[in-house]
């Protein structure tokens, strides 16, 4: 039993960053970072929320404390790891997901597996800077030729995405690893396909979509057909990384808190 517990604990420590633990929280908010991203930004959100919401951030292999691990090969591998590590945790108390960009697609894929395999559903799905996974626009992401793409092309994609804060790209070593991570994350994203079966609405929870007002427009309409719950849409000032602005982070915190509290836990 001890080794089983230890394995679970180490799995959690490896996969999830949660610097502000709140054992008495009513709900857990699990955050999923953007392509090439780590846990540092979202992990700090724990400080912004009240004691009723515990925030953690998912860490994929190939970065931060998992730097030496090989990158995940496809979306199924990513989803299976996250689900198996978090399952026990998510059965204990209500949870919500927040994903930004690439993280939105991962959070959706994880939520889908939890629902289909275990009958578990987040009380709210918050997505940010992403197309609906059942939209035409999502298919264009899948057609970006990454295998043959030069670093320069990948850099262009990062910039089009309003990419990574440019300061990081100026440091050669960080820039190189960031490019590699971004490329590998994009590869994972391209292995994800979601075909919505007719009449099959996967979720019943509410979905909220956030976007930067100066970001390139995302195809959001199709989120409507993915839940029998409510879908709402908010534009916040800024580009693709609008959520790094302190004023937007405060808006998001307040709004997410209100949604979770209204879920009547």
Automatic annotation (TrEMBL):
<keyword id="KW-0732">Signal</keyword>
<dbReference type="GO" id="GO:0016297">
    <property type="term" value="F:fatty acyl-[ACP] hydrolase activity"/>
</dbReference>
<feature type="signal peptide">
    <location>
        <begin position="1"/>
        <end position="17"/>
    </location>
</feature>
<keyword id="KW-0378">Hydrolase</keyword>
<protein>
    <recommendedName>
        <fullName>S-acyl fatty acid synthase thioesterase, medium chain</fullName>
        <ecNumber>3.1.2.14</ecNumber>
    </recommendedName>
</protein>
<dbReference type="InterPro" id="IPR001031">
    <property type="entry name" value="Thioesterase"/>
</dbReference>
<dbReference type="GO" id="GO:0051792">
    <property type="term" value="P:medium-chain fatty acid biosynthetic process"/>
</dbReference>
<dbReference type="Pfam" id="PF00975">
    <property type="entry name" value="Thioesterase"/>
</dbReference>
<keyword id="KW-0275">Fatty acid biosynthesis</keyword>
<keyword id="KW-0443">Lipid metabolism</keyword>
<dbReference type="InterPro" id="IPR012223">
    <property type="entry name" value="TEII"/>
</dbReference>
<comment type="similarity">
    <text>Belongs to the thioesterase family.</text>
</comment>
<keyword id="KW-0444">Lipid biosynthesis</keyword>
<feature type="domain" description="Thioesterase">
    <location>
        <begin position="28"/>
        <end position="251"/>
    </location>
</feature>
<dbReference type="InterPro" id="IPR029058">
    <property type="entry name" value="AB_hydrolase_fold"/>
</dbReference>
<keyword id="KW-0276">Fatty acid metabolism</keyword>
């Amino acid at each position: 039993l001890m080794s089983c517990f230890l394995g679970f604990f180490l799995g959690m420590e490896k996969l999830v960053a949660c610097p502000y633990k709140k054992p008495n929280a009513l709900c857990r908010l699990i955050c999923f970072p953007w392509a090439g991203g780590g846990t540092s930004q979202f992990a700090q959100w724990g400080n912004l929320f009240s004691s009723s919401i515990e925030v953690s951030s998912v860490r994929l292999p190939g970065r931060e404390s998992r730097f030496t691990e090989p990158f995940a090969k496809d979306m199924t591998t990513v989803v299976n790891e996250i689900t198996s590590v978090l399952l026990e945790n998510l059965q204990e108390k209500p949870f919500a997901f927040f994903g930004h960009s690439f993280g939105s697609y991962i959070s959706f894929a994880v939520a889908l597996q939890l629902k289909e395999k275990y009958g578990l559903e987040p009380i709210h799905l918050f997505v940010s800077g992403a197309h609906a996974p059942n939209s035409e626009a999502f298919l264009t992401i899948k057609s970006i030729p990454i295998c043959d793409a030069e670093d320069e092309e990948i850099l262009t994609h990062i910039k089009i995405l309003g990419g990574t804060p440019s300061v990081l790209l100026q440091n050669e070593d960080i820039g190189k690893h960031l490019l590699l991570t971004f490329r590998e994350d994009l590869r994972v994203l391209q292995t994800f396909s979601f075909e919505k079966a007719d009449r099959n609405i996967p979720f019943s929870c509410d979905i909220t979509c956030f976007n930067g007002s100066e970001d390139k427009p995302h195809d959001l309409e199709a989120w409507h057909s993915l839940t029998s719950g409510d879908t709402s849409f908010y534009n916040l000032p800024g580009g693709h990384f609008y959520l790094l602005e302190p004023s937007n982070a405060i808006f998001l915190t307040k709004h997410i808190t209100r949604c979770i509290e209204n879920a009547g836990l």
